[in-house]
Amino acid sequence: MIPRHWAHTLPEDWADLRRAVRTRDAGDPALIAQWEATVAEVAGTPHAAAVSSGRRGMALIFQHLGIGPEDEVIVPAYTLADLIPLIEALGARAVPADIDLDTFNLLPAAVAQRITAKTRAILALHAFGAPCAIDRILEIAQPARIPVIEDCAHALGATLGDRKVGAFGRAAFFSFEPTKPVNTFGGGMVTSSDAALIAAVREKMASGDASLNAVQKKANAVRMEQWMFQTRIIFPFLLALTIPGMRELAAAAYRRVQPPPRPTGRYLPVQAAIGLRKIATLQDRIQTRNRHAHHLSALLKPDIRPQRVLEGAMSTYYFFVVLLPCPAAPVRRRLLLRGIDAAVGHEIADDCAAIIGAADCPNAAHVFRHAVALPMYEGLSEAELARIAKVLNAAVG
Questions:
Q1: Among the listed residues 22, 79, 99, 63, the one whose alpha carbon sits nearest the alpha carbon of residue 197
Q2: Least C-beta-crowded within 10 Å: which of 118, 153, 162, 215?
Q3: What is the CATH number of the domain that holds 67?
């Protein structure tokens, strides 16, 4: 069985977590300041503040910008649906803008069409680690002085030209969930050149819960998932995800095993220690994923179209997503029966336009139905990449 992802862990991670749980000591708080400075440097910004999750970081950014009732926030029509309630909780309205069929990122022209007198922010996602056309989106936003917030949850270490993602907009947020480019078993970071914004985020986070329970649960979930793949016990669960009527039950069971990010809480020093170790190898791991992606792309049939990365950009390849010439769900089942785990539909991203009730984002709807996320992580071998391509080519053919 080839998993679709494999959380990056080190032996020292488990030792640190065991020590923290045993002593009930989350570590030296000075590590968090060191971690913030390191991520700020990697993101090319002067300031950073650690948060309990990327989602929490986005909400705190919008709160600082004063977004509230009657305001509108432009969001990608194809992104994580869980972000919409966070915007609505402020009293604002999420307005979907359609995506490009090749890059799966925001279409600048669609953003321009969505701007009204009520627009108070634009959320620009770098989908699956591939930089969006952020420079063009900024050009559209600047005349109206609309702040652009970068969703870099997938993209720590990605670049566009000679600049790093996270350094373009008014602020950015990153995620350190287990499958992200840097895994600290949860948590996130807000980066910005606005010192007042960062100070406000830190003030909000200072009152959070410092419990180790959430981190411990995520670590345990990673170990369990990896063990289930190694023993193939996971196969019946994955098969259930492909069967209508059982899909929702399987998804609910997964959410119980793999807890969602904490809405409150603090980022802990033990997580910072884990992050500092892993970020040292981030660029090497991104290069490995890029090699895997280019090799896999060359093996696929012409009518299977990998996500296009903008010229001069480098993706993290958090996910390797391809667009099929046919509906994705039946192909995903064929892959699974040949021992290859893949993701489709909401397991990749959501058709947020449909969720919001907008019927004029056809590209997002098409990608939602036709996209497959294939296995992508550093540990894949050339033989496994060749097998993935051979099975997918046959499944589509």
A1: 63
A2: 162
A3: 3.40.640.10
